[in-house]
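Our consortium's second objective concerns turning raw sequence data into structural hypotheses that experimental partners can test. To show how far this objective has progressed, the report includes one record in full. It was chosen at random from the queue rather than selected for favorable results. The single chain below, 293 residues long, was entered without modification.
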Amino acid sequence: MTSPVLEKLSSNKSFEGELIKYKFKSAALGGLPANFNLFLPTNASDSDKVPVLIYLAGLTCTEDNGSAQKGSFLGPASSQGIAILFPDTSPRGAGIDGEDDHWDFGTGAGFYLNATNPKFAAHYNMYTHITLELPEVIEAAGIPIDWKRQSIFGHSMGGHGALTMYLTSPQKQYRSASAFSPVSNPTKCPWGEKAFKGYLQGGIEEAKDKYDATELISKNKEPVHILIDFGTADNFYKQGQLLPENFLKAARDAGYDEFQVRVRSQEGYDHSYYFISTFASDHVHFHANFLKA
């Protein structure tokens, strides 16, 4: 099968590296065009492939939220010689009835799963898009990424995606995972319940073993490297959408100590990119410990 052609849409020099926006026709998303941003540090070359961090953004976001000035990831990544891949959060333009009716479901809210509800199954396959398609497309284009050294992180819905992909991907695809304000126990919060009932034919029951980080960590037997930060002033935390304590309890009950699973409450911080940018360097350096080993 011929790999889709990457179209380079823009390029900006940043922290001595290059931030590039690409577009291609995505088979995983039903033939729709898909955009992503890729930051390559200055040391990336054909003779020196670099490790990569995948950043998954949250509800209503695109590939631009984390890669623009908001995230503050590029400087730390450049200093560590690490690339960062910024995918989109959902298919765009599928034309499915109702997909644009709500901000927390449909466009901009793909929840990083593979839909099994026939209404969405042809297009809403963000799990495959992130874990399989993007690495294959980027590698086929000859871009100097070392796909044997990849880790994953994300924010909110993207934190949910990062944790679940880390805990379910085959052959330990990712060396480490981290999250800012993740939706940690989505089968028990309104956002997750709405997404799973809409995208999955089996609803919440189908999601438990595939897309709920708290359920997954409770059954996991492999060593893990996970860092989570959330803010105590986060309104979504207060509303019960995030539930990081549930994840932490499940991890401790499963035998994981603070060196394997660390969950930090950050006093007074909210859900915004002001919070993310404050701890962005911490997360990049956390992953560097494993990506550069």
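The partners drew two points from this record. The chain has one domain: 7-291. The beta strands are 7-14, 17-26, 32-40, 50-56, 83-87, 145-155, 177-180, 226-231, 261-266. Both points have been shared with the crystallography group to help prioritize constructs.
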